[in-house]
Write the structure tokens for this entry.
Amino acid sequence: MKLIGSYSSPYVRKISVILLEKEIAFEFVNRINSDGEDIVTRYSPLNKVPVLVADDNSIWFDSPVIAGYLEALNIPPQLQPTDGAQARYMHQVEALADGLLDAATQLAHELKKKPGQQNDADIIALRGKITRALDWLEQQLVAGKITAQPLTVGTIAIGCAIGFINRRRIAQGWCVDHPQLIRLVESLFRRESFLRTEPQAS
Ligand SMILES: N[C@@H](CCC(=O)N[C@@H](CS)C(=O)NCC(=O)O)C(=O)O
């Protein structure tokens, strides 16, 4: 099994965490090869990582699809519910966390531009998405709909999104009014799979 990605990508981290939790052996292949060439378009038309090349050479991209492929291998621990309604809800949580990450990565990109070149309307819209997503997660945790145990792909996706937000200081002060979310991510960040995939400071 090969995971093509970059060490800094939080979406790649999500798949690395799943592979580590399931103790599936894999080779990490950097999207930039030794000649400085980006190899991802050979595998993914959209040029996005992660890409998984399975042992039967089948190619899978987009992290929710890869997570589904890995779950279908039936290797414990189970990270996705089998019950239809519970599985649908977990996918909604995963989609929300991935969407939070989409907004956070776009905001990080926008904020890297010089002040005069930044699009203020985009920044406001992206901050709105991030705030509402964090509030939604807190509400679901308070209602007991998202729980730390058992670990799921949904909670792993939340950990990867918040890890990126913290590292890039995208939503400073978010901790103040999201105590349940802090408790969840603190428990995730103590796991060996998260510790081993923590990106180096850039
Ligand atoms: N929805 C995708 C998002 C993946 C994604 O946006 N990956 C970024 C790296 S963090 C990427 O490869 N961007 C390159 C590009 O869009 O050209 C997933 O969950 O796998």
